Fold:
Amino acid sequence: AGDGRAGQALVNPPPPDFPEPFEAVVRQFMEVLDRREFYRLLARFWPGEEAVEVRLWLLAQSRSALSRHPREGEEAFVLPLAAAPELRELCARGGDACWPSSRTYVCPEGSVKVAAAFSLRYQGEIVGLLLAPRLEVRHQASARRVADLCAPAVMHLEMYDSLMRDISFRDTKLEAIHEMAGIFRNLDLDRLLAKILEMFLGILGGEAGALITKEGEGWRTRIEWGLRQEVVAGLRVAGRPLGDFVVEHGEPWMMKAGEPAALENPSGMNIASCYALPLLVTGGVPGVVLAVNVDATCGQDEVLTSISRFAAMALENARLCQEMLEK
Structure:
Protein backbone atom coordinates (compact mmCIF):
# COMPACT_ATOMS: atom_id res chain seq x y z
CA ALA A 1 0.00 0.00 0.00
CA GLY A 2 3.00 2.27 0.19
CA ASP A 3 4.06 2.26 -3.47
CA GLY A 4 1.94 5.30 -4.31
CA ARG A 5 -0.45 3.70 -6.77
CA ALA A 6 -3.88 5.30 -6.48
CA GLY A 7 -6.69 2.98 -5.54
CA GLN A 8 -4.51 0.30 -3.93
CA ALA A 9 -5.85 -1.05 -0.62
CA LEU A 10 -4.30 -3.21 2.06
CA VAL A 11 -4.64 -6.96 1.70
CA ASN A 12 -6.45 -8.44 4.73
CA PRO A 13 -6.11 -5.21 6.75
CA PRO A 14 -6.12 -5.57 10.54
CA PRO A 15 -9.23 -4.30 12.33
CA PRO A 16 -8.86 -0.59 13.11
CA ASP A 17 -8.37 0.45 16.72
CA PHE A 18 -10.46 3.19 18.27
CA PRO A 19 -10.31 4.53 21.82
CA GLU A 20 -14.07 3.90 22.14
CA PRO A 21 -16.50 1.19 20.97
CA PHE A 22 -17.06 1.52 17.24
CA GLU A 23 -20.82 2.05 17.67
CA ALA A 24 -20.12 5.10 19.84
CA VAL A 25 -17.67 6.46 17.25
CA VAL A 26 -20.19 6.03 14.42
CA ARG A 27 -22.89 7.84 16.37
CA GLN A 28 -20.61 10.77 17.16
CA PHE A 29 -19.76 11.29 13.49
CA MET A 30 -23.35 10.85 12.32
CA GLU A 31 -24.74 13.31 14.88
CA VAL A 32 -22.29 16.17 14.35
CA LEU A 33 -23.82 19.46 13.13
CA ASP A 34 -20.95 21.84 13.88
CA ARG A 35 -17.74 22.29 11.87
CA ARG A 36 -15.52 22.74 14.93
CA GLU A 37 -16.95 19.61 16.50
CA PHE A 38 -16.46 17.70 13.25
CA TYR A 39 -12.76 18.56 13.06
CA ARG A 40 -12.36 17.82 16.76
CA LEU A 41 -13.69 14.30 16.10
CA LEU A 42 -11.46 13.90 13.06
CA ALA A 43 -8.35 14.87 15.05
CA ARG A 44 -9.37 12.62 17.95
CA PHE A 45 -9.92 9.44 15.95
CA TRP A 46 -7.26 9.87 13.27
CA PRO A 47 -4.73 7.05 13.80
CA GLY A 48 -1.18 7.68 14.95
CA GLU A 49 0.43 9.24 17.96
CA GLU A 50 1.36 12.61 16.44
CA ALA A 51 -1.09 15.42 15.78
CA VAL A 52 -1.60 15.66 12.01
CA GLU A 53 -3.48 18.35 10.06
CA VAL A 54 -5.95 16.14 8.17
CA ARG A 55 -8.39 17.95 5.87
CA LEU A 56 -11.34 17.13 3.69
CA TRP A 57 -11.47 18.35 0.12
CA LEU A 58 -14.77 18.25 -1.76
CA LEU A 59 -14.96 17.60 -5.48
CA ALA A 60 -16.31 20.50 -7.53
CA GLN A 61 -19.42 19.94 -9.63
CA SER A 62 -17.26 20.14 -12.75
CA ARG A 63 -15.07 17.39 -11.21
CA SER A 64 -12.01 19.37 -12.32
CA ALA A 65 -10.93 20.71 -8.92
CA LEU A 66 -10.98 20.05 -5.20
CA SER A 67 -12.20 22.67 -2.76
CA ARG A 68 -10.94 22.53 0.82
CA HIS A 69 -13.79 22.06 3.29
CA PRO A 70 -13.39 25.28 5.29
CA ARG A 71 -13.25 25.63 9.00
CA GLU A 72 -15.00 28.67 10.44
CA GLY A 73 -13.41 31.87 9.18
CA GLU A 74 -11.21 30.23 6.54
CA GLU A 75 -10.91 31.53 3.00
CA ALA A 76 -11.60 29.42 -0.07
CA PHE A 77 -8.76 27.15 -1.20
CA VAL A 78 -9.09 25.40 -4.57
CA LEU A 79 -6.75 22.72 -5.91
CA PRO A 80 -7.07 22.14 -9.69
CA LEU A 81 -6.84 18.42 -10.43
CA ALA A 82 -4.85 19.14 -13.58
CA ALA A 83 -1.94 19.94 -11.24
CA ALA A 84 -2.44 16.75 -9.20
CA PRO A 85 -2.71 13.70 -11.50
CA GLU A 86 -2.52 11.18 -8.63
CA LEU A 87 -5.43 12.85 -6.87
CA ARG A 88 -7.36 13.15 -10.13
CA GLU A 89 -7.08 9.37 -10.54
CA LEU A 90 -8.38 8.80 -7.02
CA CYS A 91 -11.35 11.07 -7.72
CA ALA A 92 -12.13 9.07 -10.85
CA ARG A 93 -11.54 5.52 -9.59
CA GLY A 94 -11.85 5.70 -5.81
CA GLY A 95 -9.61 3.87 -3.35
CA ASP A 96 -6.62 5.02 -1.32
CA ALA A 97 -3.01 6.05 -1.86
CA CYS A 98 -0.14 6.14 0.62
CA TRP A 99 3.30 7.40 -0.48
CA PRO A 100 6.67 6.83 1.25
CA SER A 101 7.35 10.57 1.09
CA SER A 102 4.93 13.47 0.83
CA ARG A 103 4.07 15.22 -2.42
CA THR A 104 3.50 18.95 -2.74
CA TYR A 105 0.85 20.41 -5.01
CA VAL A 106 0.95 24.13 -5.79
CA CYS A 107 -2.16 26.21 -6.45
CA PRO A 108 -2.96 29.97 -6.46
CA GLU A 109 -3.82 30.08 -2.74
CA GLY A 110 -0.67 28.22 -1.64
CA SER A 111 0.63 24.66 -1.53
CA VAL A 112 -0.75 21.36 -0.23
CA LYS A 113 1.48 18.60 1.17
CA VAL A 114 0.04 15.10 0.80
CA ALA A 115 1.42 11.72 1.88
CA ALA A 116 -1.89 9.83 2.07
CA ALA A 117 -5.22 10.27 0.32
CA PHE A 118 -8.55 8.51 0.82
CA SER A 119 -11.58 8.81 -1.46
CA LEU A 120 -14.87 9.90 0.10
CA ARG A 121 -17.93 8.11 -1.22
CA TYR A 122 -21.52 9.17 -0.52
CA GLN A 123 -24.64 7.57 -2.00
CA GLY A 124 -22.52 5.65 -4.50
CA GLU A 125 -20.55 8.65 -5.81
CA ILE A 126 -17.07 9.97 -5.03
CA VAL A 127 -17.56 13.40 -3.49
CA GLY A 128 -14.02 14.28 -2.42
CA LEU A 129 -10.79 13.21 -0.73
CA LEU A 130 -9.41 13.08 2.78
CA LEU A 131 -5.78 14.27 2.62
CA ALA A 132 -3.04 13.87 5.24
CA PRO A 133 0.53 15.25 5.12
CA ARG A 134 1.91 12.04 6.67
CA LEU A 135 0.69 8.58 7.66
CA GLU A 136 2.40 5.32 8.60
CA VAL A 137 1.34 2.45 6.35
CA ARG A 138 0.34 0.37 9.38
CA HIS A 139 -2.38 2.93 10.12
CA GLN A 140 -3.92 2.88 6.64
CA ALA A 141 -6.79 0.51 7.53
CA SER A 142 -7.81 2.68 10.48
CA ALA A 143 -7.53 5.83 8.37
CA ARG A 144 -9.75 4.24 5.73
CA ARG A 145 -12.42 3.56 8.35
CA VAL A 146 -12.27 7.18 9.52
CA ALA A 147 -12.70 8.32 5.90
CA ASP A 148 -15.79 6.10 5.64
CA LEU A 149 -17.24 7.89 8.66
CA CYS A 150 -16.29 11.35 7.38
CA ALA A 151 -18.00 11.06 3.99
CA PRO A 152 -21.64 11.01 5.17
CA ALA A 153 -20.86 13.25 8.15
CA VAL A 154 -19.46 16.09 6.04
CA MET A 155 -22.20 15.81 3.40
CA HIS A 156 -24.89 16.02 6.08
CA LEU A 157 -23.07 18.96 7.63
CA GLU A 158 -23.04 20.74 4.26
CA MET A 159 -26.75 20.06 3.71
CA TYR A 160 -27.57 21.22 7.24
CA ASP A 161 -25.67 24.48 6.73
CA SER A 162 -27.43 25.01 3.40
CA LEU A 163 -30.85 24.44 4.93
CA MET A 164 -30.18 26.84 7.78
CA ARG A 165 -29.13 29.53 5.28
CA ASP A 166 -32.33 29.03 3.26
CA ILE A 167 -34.75 29.21 6.18
CA SER A 168 -36.75 32.41 6.55
CA PHE A 169 -36.21 33.58 10.11
CA ARG A 170 -39.32 35.75 9.88
CA ASP A 171 -41.54 32.68 9.90
CA THR A 172 -43.71 32.24 12.96
CA LYS A 173 -43.00 28.50 12.95
CA LEU A 174 -39.24 28.90 13.32
CA GLU A 175 -39.34 27.08 16.66
CA ALA A 176 -40.60 24.00 14.83
CA ILE A 177 -37.62 24.16 12.48
CA HIS A 178 -35.23 24.34 15.43
CA GLU A 179 -36.98 21.34 16.97
CA MET A 180 -36.52 19.38 13.76
CA ALA A 181 -32.85 20.38 13.67
CA GLY A 182 -32.57 18.87 17.14
CA ILE A 183 -34.11 15.52 16.23
CA PHE A 184 -31.62 15.29 13.36
CA ARG A 185 -29.38 13.76 16.03
CA ASN A 186 -31.87 10.94 16.73
CA LEU A 187 -30.51 7.75 15.19
CA ASP A 188 -33.28 5.41 16.43
CA LEU A 189 -35.29 5.04 13.22
CA ASP A 190 -38.67 4.07 14.76
CA ARG A 191 -38.59 6.87 17.33
CA LEU A 192 -37.47 9.30 14.62
CA LEU A 193 -40.38 8.41 12.33
CA ALA A 194 -42.87 8.77 15.17
CA LYS A 195 -41.46 12.19 16.11
CA ILE A 196 -41.61 13.42 12.51
CA LEU A 197 -45.28 12.44 12.21
CA GLU A 198 -46.08 13.99 15.60
CA MET A 199 -44.53 17.31 14.53
CA PHE A 200 -46.44 17.46 11.24
CA LEU A 201 -49.78 16.67 12.86
CA GLY A 202 -49.08 19.32 15.47
CA ILE A 203 -48.36 22.03 12.88
CA LEU A 204 -51.31 21.07 10.67
CA GLY A 205 -53.77 20.36 13.48
CA GLY A 206 -54.57 17.04 11.80
CA GLU A 207 -56.93 14.51 13.38
CA ALA A 208 -55.06 11.54 11.90
CA GLY A 209 -51.99 10.86 9.83
CA ALA A 210 -49.38 8.41 8.62
CA LEU A 211 -45.82 8.28 7.34
CA ILE A 212 -45.51 5.99 4.34
CA THR A 213 -42.51 4.73 2.37
CA LYS A 214 -42.29 3.26 -1.11
CA GLU A 215 -41.73 -0.50 -1.24
CA GLY A 216 -41.78 -2.21 -4.62
CA GLU A 217 -44.95 -1.25 -6.48
CA GLY A 218 -46.83 -0.19 -3.37
CA TRP A 219 -46.58 1.89 -0.21
CA ARG A 220 -45.95 0.71 3.34
CA THR A 221 -47.28 2.54 6.37
CA ARG A 222 -44.30 2.90 8.69
CA ILE A 223 -46.00 4.95 11.41
CA GLU A 224 -49.73 5.62 11.77
CA TRP A 225 -51.83 7.87 13.97
CA GLY A 226 -55.46 6.97 13.34
CA LEU A 227 -54.91 6.50 9.57
CA ARG A 228 -54.81 2.74 8.99
CA GLN A 229 -52.78 0.95 6.31
CA GLU A 230 -55.90 -0.27 4.49
CA VAL A 231 -57.26 3.30 4.29
CA VAL A 232 -53.96 4.71 2.96
CA ALA A 233 -53.71 1.92 0.39
CA GLY A 234 -56.99 3.00 -1.23
CA LEU A 235 -56.33 6.77 -1.38
CA ARG A 236 -55.95 7.99 -4.96
CA VAL A 237 -55.63 11.29 -6.84
CA ALA A 238 -56.33 11.45 -10.57
CA GLY A 239 -56.45 7.67 -10.62
CA ARG A 240 -52.98 7.33 -9.09
CA PRO A 241 -52.04 6.12 -5.59
CA LEU A 242 -51.69 9.23 -3.42
CA GLY A 243 -48.05 8.48 -2.59
CA ASP A 244 -47.11 8.09 -6.27
CA PHE A 245 -48.95 11.29 -7.19
CA VAL A 246 -47.13 13.35 -4.54
CA VAL A 247 -43.73 11.87 -5.40
CA GLU A 248 -44.16 12.53 -9.12
CA HIS A 249 -45.01 16.18 -8.47
CA GLY A 250 -42.28 16.59 -5.83
CA GLU A 251 -44.23 19.21 -3.86
CA PRO A 252 -46.95 19.40 -1.20
CA TRP A 253 -50.49 18.49 -2.21
CA MET A 254 -53.63 19.62 -0.39
CA MET A 255 -57.37 19.06 -0.55
CA LYS A 256 -59.12 21.74 1.52
CA ALA A 257 -62.41 21.24 3.33
CA GLY A 258 -65.37 22.34 1.22
CA GLU A 259 -63.54 21.95 -2.08
CA PRO A 260 -64.62 19.38 -4.66
CA ALA A 261 -63.35 15.99 -3.49
CA ALA A 262 -60.12 15.41 -5.45
CA LEU A 263 -59.22 12.46 -3.22
CA GLU A 264 -60.67 9.05 -4.01
CA ASN A 265 -61.39 7.31 -0.69
CA PRO A 266 -63.14 3.93 -1.05
CA SER A 267 -62.67 3.11 2.65
CA GLY A 268 -65.55 5.33 3.74
CA MET A 269 -63.45 7.03 6.44
CA ASN A 270 -64.47 10.65 6.93
CA ILE A 271 -61.73 12.69 5.21
CA ALA A 272 -62.84 16.29 4.70
CA SER A 273 -59.34 17.65 4.02
CA CYS A 274 -55.90 16.16 3.37
CA TYR A 275 -52.32 17.38 3.23
CA ALA A 276 -49.53 15.25 1.74
CA LEU A 277 -45.85 16.21 1.85
CA PRO A 278 -42.93 14.38 0.20
CA LEU A 279 -39.72 13.87 2.19
CA LEU A 280 -37.22 15.00 -0.44
CA VAL A 281 -33.63 13.78 -0.36
CA THR A 282 -30.77 13.71 -2.88
CA GLY A 283 -31.33 10.85 -5.30
CA GLY A 284 -34.97 10.13 -4.48
CA VAL A 285 -37.99 10.51 -2.21
CA PRO A 286 -37.86 8.14 0.76
CA GLY A 287 -41.38 8.78 1.98
CA VAL A 288 -44.53 10.86 2.24
CA VAL A 289 -46.20 12.32 5.33
CA LEU A 290 -50.02 12.41 5.31
CA ALA A 291 -52.34 14.39 7.56
CA VAL A 292 -56.15 14.33 7.24
CA ASN A 293 -58.88 16.62 8.56
CA VAL A 294 -56.37 19.42 9.05
CA ASP A 295 -57.19 22.90 10.41
CA ALA A 296 -55.44 25.03 7.77
CA THR A 297 -52.03 25.46 6.13
CA CYS A 298 -52.31 28.93 4.64
CA GLY A 299 -48.79 30.36 4.49
CA GLN A 300 -47.21 27.25 6.00
CA ASP A 301 -45.98 25.49 2.84
CA GLU A 302 -42.51 27.05 3.13
CA VAL A 303 -41.93 26.04 6.74
CA LEU A 304 -43.38 22.55 6.20
CA THR A 305 -41.12 22.04 3.18
CA SER A 306 -38.09 23.17 5.21
CA ILE A 307 -38.98 20.75 7.99
CA SER A 308 -39.54 17.94 5.48
CA ARG A 309 -35.98 18.45 4.22
CA PHE A 310 -34.66 18.11 7.76
CA ALA A 311 -36.80 14.99 8.20
CA ALA A 312 -35.46 13.42 5.00
CA MET A 313 -31.87 14.10 6.09
CA ALA A 314 -32.55 12.66 9.51
CA LEU A 315 -33.98 9.48 7.95
CA GLU A 316 -30.94 9.13 5.68
CA ASN A 317 -28.70 9.77 8.68
CA ALA A 318 -30.33 6.98 10.69
CA ARG A 319 -30.22 4.58 7.71
CA LEU A 320 -26.50 5.17 7.14
CA CYS A 321 -25.78 4.72 10.83
CA GLN A 322 -27.54 1.34 10.85
CA GLU A 323 -25.75 0.34 7.64
CA MET A 324 -22.30 1.14 9.11
CA LEU A 325 -23.01 -0.75 12.31
CA GLU A 326 -24.14 -3.81 10.35
CA LYS A 327 -20.93 -3.96 8.27
